[in-house]
Amino acid sequence: MEKISMKYVAAAMISLKVSLIGFLCWKIYSTSPSPLSNFSFDQEFLLFILAGFVAQIIDGALGMAYGVSCSTMLLGIGVPPAVASASVHTAEVFTTGVSGLSHIFMRNIDKRLFFRLVFTGVAGAVIGAYLISDILDGKVIKPFIAGYLLLLGIYILYKSFRNIKASKSNWRFAPYLGFLGAFFDSIGGGGWGPIVSSNLIDKGNSPREVIGTVNTAEFFVTFFSTGVFIFFLGIEAWKPVLALIIGGVIAAPIGAYILRFMAPKTIMRLVGILIISTSTYTIYKSLL
Fold first, then answer.
1. Which one of 91, 92, 258, 260 counts the least CB within 10 Å of its CB?
2. pLDDT of residue 123
């Protein structure tokens, strides 16, 4: 696998994105009435775009928090957990695609790590997406998902205050992290970056290579989990999906560029505080 050029990976990403765009266009055209018939370019839509932009800037620069940030926002305004996760993952196919291609172009990739993550990551994503789509009760699991996201926020904040010493790259546990990160990401709408990136960086691996590689592998994780979501749920929340795509695609190259200059610990602290705040609010609303 390590002999495969990242150019072929980039070509596969572009092909999969084009196929999804074609499917979504067919879905909109063939559905009656059109899911976009009541679409309005209002203040709420602009807020969704801003949320997708900010979340992707953070994700592209740090390798985490896009799904967590967007999921906590959607859950906070009352979107059902399965629909929230499906919406975030549909948008994430496009944002992670642009982000991953940007990281490949800027050579922020470790090819050996990429192939250790991507296959187990896809398996975990498909299993998690199936469980949240067809087996688990969204209303019952909502406060537990919010609690899970709260713990992720605390974990990110904790990590930001630890001293990480550089060491030789060690990807031995990467396949297991890929499976767990993708599984919880599909169920909770976020977790791939916090679980995978944080643990790999914590071992002293190069933050630039970890973040670039994790973001690129995330495209394939989100693509296949989105396929499961669409099969079982369709796409109900077209408005936030389109807005998150627009904001995220604009921000993706910027996040990859910022990675070269901005201190990860600074962003980690801001992300941790944001996720803790929004998740706490969601839990509070769930208990009312």
1. 260
2. 92
Residue 221 half-sphere exposure toward CB, CA atoms < 13 A: 40
Domains identified in the chain, total number? 1
Helix 66-76 and helix 192-202, axial crossing angle in degrees, nearest 10: 150
pLDDT in tens, 63-94: 666 776 777 766 666 667 666 666 777 777 88
Domain coverage including residue 261: 7-11+42-287
d(CA 284, CA 185): 22
Residue 277 lies in a domain: yes
Phi, psi (deg, nearest 5) at residue 286 = -70, -30
Question: pLDDT tens digits for 146-194?
Answer: 777 788 778 778 877 876 555 555 677 888 988 988 887 777 666 677 7
Question: Which amino acid, one-letter code, is at 103?
Answer: H
Between CA 111 and CA 121, with CA 115 as vertex, the angle to 5 degrees is 135
3-class DSSP state for residue 61? helix
Length of the chain counted residue by residue: 288
CA–CA dist 81, 95 (Å, integer)? 21
The pTM assigned to this predicted structure is 0.72
